[in-house]
Every structure is written in structure tokens, then in C-alpha cells.
Amino acid sequence: MKRLIASVLFFFMVISMVKSYPDGDIAVGALKVEMLTDPEGIDVRYPKLSWKISAGQKETYQEAYQVLVASSPELLSPEKADVWNSGRVTSDGSIHVTYDGEALGKDTKVYWKVKVWTNHGESDWSETAHWSLGLLYYKDWRGRWIGFDRAFPWEDISTFPTLGARYFRHEFGVEKEVKRATVYIMGLGLYELHLNGQKVGDAVLAPTPTDYTQNVKYNAYDVTTMLRGSTENAVGVMLGNGRYFTMRQNYKPYKIKNFGFPKLLFNLVIHYKDGSKEVISTSDQWKGTADGPIRNNNEYDGEYYDANKEFPGWDKIGFDDSSWLQAEYVQEPRGDFEAQLNENMKVMEEVKPVSLEKIDGDRYILDMGQNMVGWLQMTVQGEKGDTVKLKFAESLQENGELFMTNLRDAKVTDTYILKDAKEVTWEPRFTYHGFRFVEISGYPDEPKIEDFVGKVVYDNIKTVGHFETSDPVLNQIYQNAWWGIAGNYKGMPVDCPQRNERQPWLGDRAVGAHGEFYMFDNARLYQKWLEDIRLAQKADGSLPDVAPAYWRYYSDNMTWPGTYLMIADMLYQQTGDSSVVRENYHAMKKWLTYMADRYMNEDYIVTKDSYGDWVVPPASIEAGTGQNADVKRPSALISTAYYYYFMEMMSDFASILGKQEDIPAYQSMKVKVHEGFQKEFYHEEGFYGANKMTDNLLPLAFGMVPEEDRQKVFGQVVETIEVKNSGHLSTGLIGTQWLMRTLSDFGRADLALKLATNTTFPSWGYMIENGATTIWELWHGNVAKASMNSQNHTMLLGDLTVWYYEYLAGIKAGENSPGFKSFVLDPVFVQELDFVKASFDSPYGMIGSYWERQGKQIVWKVKVPVNTTATVKLPARATGNVTLNGKALVTGETVVKLGSGEYEFVF
């Protein structure tokens, strides 16, 4: 029952946050209702529904709604709706509206639509959408897990395994007319599903990765139109290794988890028009082989494909599988079976290479022009046995060869062996690479640049934000951030996509996820990640540094595990969904108690930290050249400041959940930690700790500095930047998360802008000046020791993208109105910028903030979605001659409340 409740609380993100709408919205006049469509196979009986309204008239608010839910589209009318008719409900709620009909059973599909009443009229009914319930309980699954729990003679499962894909197939008859058919599949580690010779769906590298000892996600597909009625059908499934069969076998088993060999559980539930039902499931009557064309596959080393081992038609009726083995029953994974509510990965874009140069012999270097994540599609023609190798890297050495050292022992090579002289187009299935450059060798004749296409792979989520300014450095940083963030969405936020790591480190995304939310529709991804973190918690309360805990790192510190609280808070503030707090509150409280019990001394100092301000820049490029950046500098100041910060956050969480009885303990601890912090770390000269930037930034950002000392401490930050650092930052992963907002909050947005637009070391612009098209792991990533200098990380973005949207554009959720029902528009009109243009597709619709200098005036255009209000704050200097849509404002009016619509201020 606990699992089911968790899913119910999570489901809002699936129904209400996907920005995917049907064509042909029904409207009355200019009033439209848009709604999300068609999530398949969820395990939530009472989902939450959401819709968006658009209208031509300003200041439009929803006053009431009516939702209809029925078992067929034909029954979707107020008179016939047989599942739920909400009736007219007086409410302005258009997100998180809970389905309140009868509890739906397993494998049930329903259809729904909505109409709204506003202060400007009534809409028509929306287009029809649907959702379906999947398999709700363990016993709902039929059949058994199949696989081959062993290596075959041609395979090697030593430290660097060469385990090929497993192929399974089955034929079955469909003798009656089909009404509806749904596949439910768990294919571990990765699967590709085929039915009657066609791939099912457009997902790649599915399903989403988890700690398979805790939970296993299933996917559902409506395959009604793919079945052949009154005839035979064939299903085929390929299994890749993924995270299940670990990429490094028997290598540091004390650190790296291994789960076993690939395995499959498959149910095809067929509903016939005569009312009967049939389930096709995995059994030992299926046939399987490991002797197919994919001879090896994993994330680190690539895919080895021998076309000579292909068996055409294996996924169709009539294929001769007499040489295949009987499928074997295998042990099921230990984790609970759950519907996957976050998106699978998909090929989201294509990139055409910009150059192809020969280096020697049959070796060529292909340049994609962009550090990207995915794989290369190749078109090739040669002779039987020709072997083409594609080796991937992020950069080149001075001699033009691939720079491979920073990839550690990852082989990052795809191999394709031709079977005949026919032209073929090929791409891998069960690997991905982080790369800009590809070394091509063994290609028959001379390759042409048009023979290759880059496939960009990340979670199937939409880009929902746009940001542009008059400064090209700010714009390029934003583009670099987009490419890095997107590429590292892999069913979980990983740190890097190229070397032998690719782990979901918590510390990398603490504040960064907040900025990402303005750029990507990532709420379901991060809600799934909260579950990963919660399930990784030990019984005593300890939280990991990596979740899912593929690497057993439980180092006990405040900053990495503390991301758990910060992501929950971000999701609540940005979406308005309190379930993220409710579901995780107990685990967060348990962790904080654990840390205090073990590491808080009698003076209320948290003495344990692991990483300190990770990867602070060296004093100079020369000082960092060739040096190892993997240096831990534990800081009790950091750990204690964060404990204080989390006490305030837990007080807010308790208030949200109505747990008023918990608040006094949090507030009491907060006071004691603050007293201990001041006594231990504050110096009368006006600084904290060792007077490092981060030492002073944290107490300023967390509100720990007494009022009378705030300017003095902030002055130390400014002096460090302007004098000691000659106008540069000196923060690592932790300090950079609070840098830009704190400078702006204390009136120095101009100094923040200088840091953001610097092109000399250390800065984001320095990365660009040295060829970066994503964000580096290190400020000095071009010269650091190669063991740790990924060129595609996001952790050093800190709060930069938050600052872009919330300060330069001024778009912020209302302090007491999470989810952007009421929001604030309050830009910093930095003198050095000529314009800022930003938009963000919020839960209610598009928010826009576009300001531009025109001579001595500023023209500021804003957009407010239907059913929301915006508090617009004009700069203090705009006290006269301010116009709103051409009409003068009252003199001295600097705060204006607006309903929906588009507006223009001039001042």
C-alpha cells in the first residue's frame, strides 16, 4: 500500500506538466482549453489532472470547471459519462485537480475532457484525451522472468566485459476481433521491443535506470493497431546490458553494484470485442539466443555489431528459430515493480558534422561542431568483412589525434562489420557517447561527410524556456548550458556522459536543477530522482552522495545529500505540488537527525564534511597546469551553515504539511546552530572562516549574518572579487550556487554581470574562449591533469541560469504562491545590457519578460498567462513618466498587479 500511495502523490507530474497537446483545440471565440494527452500504463488510481487556458481578452480568470471521464470517447457527454462527471465545480484551480470518480482497476483505459467558465465566458469542451492504468500489484503480472543467467563461450565477463545482446521471440495467434491491446514490459538492463517486424514506440535506452534491488520500472504501450487479427503474430525483444549488467565486472565490487545478467518479463493483455481477455506472457516456450549481431554493448565501451550474425525476419511470423535455445527461467530482480512515470530517452535532434579530415592511412577525424551526447549514424558500402570503427572524444590533441586520457578506461568505440556489398545505414542501440570528434577507421574507400549524422539522445522532455540578451558571451554560455544539461539527462541527472563514470552525483544539481526548470520540462525526472534518493537511504538515516547508489558512496556530508531537500523545495515552489514534500519529509527528517547525532558537537557545530567547496579554481592557470583537481577540503563552516539552512527549510516543509508540532524543534535547533556558528566562525574584522568567498557567501545567502554586520561581510566579498581576484570569482561548486543571486540581492548585479561576462580565467567565458560548447567540470579544464577534466559537466553553472531568469528577466514564483499562480516580474535592468528577452512555459502557460533600452528609455513587454496574476515591480528610479500600454501610471507607482494578457511599460 505504501508504494501505491507514493505513486498517487507523484502522478500530478505526469498528467499536468507534460507540454504536449492535441491539435485543433476547441474554442468559443478566443477562449481555448488545452490539455495533456495520453499517459499509458500508470499505477495511480486517483491521478491529478491539469489544463491550460488561453484567451484573447485580458484579465481572464477561471471561475469554474467541469471534467468528464468515460470508458469510451462516445460516452464523453454530461448525460452519458460513465466513469466520472464532476459537474460544474466553482474553482479557479486548473492544475492538480484530483480525479474523484470510482477507483479504476488494472489495465483500464479511460477518456476525458474538460470545459471551463471564466469571467469572460464559457469554453467549448476540450479535445478528448485519455489515460490508462497499468498493472497495480505484483500478482497482476502473468508468466515468469526469462533470460540466460550465464555467459556464452564467445563472451567475456572479466573486468572489461564483452557481453552481447540477448534476443527473444515468440509467436502467438489472435483468433478474434481485438478491441484493445497493451504491452507491459520490463526488459533489464535495456530493451527494444518489436511486434510483427516493427519497433514499438520511439523510446531508446529504455527503461529508466533504477537501483534494481529497490524498484524496477515497467513501460506500457498501446499496440492495438499493430496486432493482426485472426492470424499469427510475432513479438521480438532485444535486451542490452545497461546498468543491470554492470559495465565493469569484478572491479571494486565493494564500491560498484552488480545486479546480474539481462532478463525480461513481458505481458501483452488483449481485450476482445466479445468481452473476453487473453494474456500473452514470457515463458520457457519462448525462444532466445545470444549469438546475434550485437556482440557487445555498454555505456563505457560502446557497441560491437557484426552484420554477418544478423537473422533477418527474427521478429516476424515464420522465422526459423529451430537453432535458437529455449528461454530459461531466471531469478527476478529484488526491487518492487512500478509504472514508470518519467519519460524515456529518445533521439531528440540530429546534428550534421562540420568537417571531415584525413589524418593518416585509413583514419579520419569527423568534427560535429558541438560537444553532444548520443551516437553517430553511419551509411557505408564495402565488402563482406570490412570493419569500421568509430572512436569518440570531446577534443583533439595538438597533433590532431583524439584526446582520450580524460576518458580514463572507457573504450568509447563502436564497431560495425559488413556482411556484403550492399549499402547499409547503421546506428547503435545500447550505448551512448559524449563527444564532439569521432575517429573513423576501416571505412571502405573514402568516407564523405554526408555519410554521417549525429543523433542527440536525452530524456523526451520539451525545452520550455528561451533566453537571449544583447551580450554574446551570456548567450553562448546559455547555449553551452542547454547542451550540457540536456545531454546529461539519462533517466536521472548524471554528472558527465563520456568517461567511465556517468553517475548521478547529488551535489552537481543542488541549485542547478532550479535553473534547469526554467529551461526544460523536467519535473517528472526530478521527482523520480527524489524517489531514487529516498530508496537509497540506509535504515539509520544515512543518505548517499550518488543515487541510485550504483556506487556505494555514503560519505556523510551536508552538501551532497542535502540536495535531496533542495530539489524537493524547488519542485514545490515551481510546480505547487506539495506531494514532493509529503512523500519525502520523513526521510529528510531522519537524515538530519542522523547527521546531528553523529557529527554535531556540544557547540552545535557539524564537524563532518567530505568535499568542502569542491573544485575551487587555482590561483592561476599556471598554478593549475597538470595538477590533480580531485582534492577534498572538508569545511565545518560549510556543513554547519547548511544545517542551519535546512532547519529553516524543514520548518517550511512542516508548515506546508500541517505538522506544526515539528516546527518548534527546528526553530530551536536553528537558533543554537546559529549561535555556535557565530561564535566559531565570525571574526570582528567582518568576515567568516578564512575569509574565502564561499565562507562569506553562505552566511549572507542563508540570512545568518546579524543586520549590523551584513554590509561589512558583503564588503569582504566585493573586495575579494574586485581586489584580490582582479574582478573574478574564486568559488567552487558550493559557493557558485549562491554567488550571482547574493551579489544582486545586495545591490551589485553589475558585479555579477561582470563575472558572467568575463572571458579570462576563471570564468564561464574563459571556457568559451578555449573552444567549449558545453560547461567544463573545472574552471581550468583545458590544462588540469587529465584524470578529472570532463568537458561536459553542469555543476559549475551554480546559480547562473537561475540568475538569468529570476534576476535579468525577473521571472519568479510568488513567495506564497508556488506553481506560478501568482508570480513576480522584477528584473534587474543592468546598465551594461541593451536588452533581455526571456520566456518560460509555466504550469499555467507562457510567461514573458522582454526589456530593451531605446535611447534613454526602457521598453518592457510582459506576458501573463490566463488564470494567473503578476506583481510587476518597476525600478525605484521609474517614479514619473511611466506608461502602461500607452497610458500614464500614477506618479510614484512602482508596483502594479496585472491579470492575464500582454502589456508594455515605458519608462
UniProtKB/TrEMBL annotation:
Residues 176-349 form the Bacterial alpha-L-rhamnosidase N-terminal domain. Residues 463-807 form the Alpha-L-rhamnosidase six-hairpin glycosidase domain. One of its GO terms (molecular function) is alpha-L-rhamnosidase activity. The keyword Hydrolase applies. Residues 810-883 form the Alpha-L-rhamnosidase C-terminal domain. It is an enzyme of class 3 (hydrolase). One of its GO terms (biological process) is carbohydrate metabolic process. Keywords: Hydrolase. Its EC number is 3.2.1.40. InterPro entries: 6-hairpin_glycosidase_sf, 6hp_glycosidase-like_sf, Alpha_rhamnosid, Bac_rhamnosid6H, Bac_rhamnosid_C, Bac_rhamnosid_N, Ig-like_fold, Rhamnosid_concanavalin. It catalyses: Hydrolysis of terminal non-reducing alpha-L-rhamnose residues in alpha-L-rhamnosides. The keyword Hydrolase applies. Signal peptide: none annotated. Residues 358-458 form the Alpha-L-rhamnosidase concanavalin-like domain. Coiled coil: none annotated. This is alpha-L-rhamnosidase. It comes from Echinicola soli. The lineage of its organism: Bacteria, Pseudomonadati, Bacteroidota, Cytophagia, Cytophagales.
